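ok, trying the design again with the full structure, not the truncated one.
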């Protein structure tokens, strides 16, 4: 997901859980890049799911990934 979109969504929640969001867009971009690098390097441990879709679709992907990995 584009870091600016994610940041906007997180701040819109207004739930007080904004420690990472308070670092701003630059930090969000660096965090995203770091996570994508980890996903490439350790593809057997990480799964990348496109969060730029309806929540139901993202949830379905997450459910499928977790279901495939748990006994």
């Amino acid at each position: 997901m584009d870091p600016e979109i994610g940041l906007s969504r997180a701040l819109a929640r207004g739930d007080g859980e904004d420690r990472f969001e308070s670092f701003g867009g630059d930090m969000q971009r660096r965090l995203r890049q770091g996570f994508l690098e980890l996903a490439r390097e350790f593809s057997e441990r990480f799964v990348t799911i496109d969060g730029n879709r309806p929540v139901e679709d993202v949830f379905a992907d997450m459910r499928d990934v977790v279901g495939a990995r748990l006994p």
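Keeping the full-length input from now on. The CA atoms of residues 1 and 53 lie 9 Å apart.
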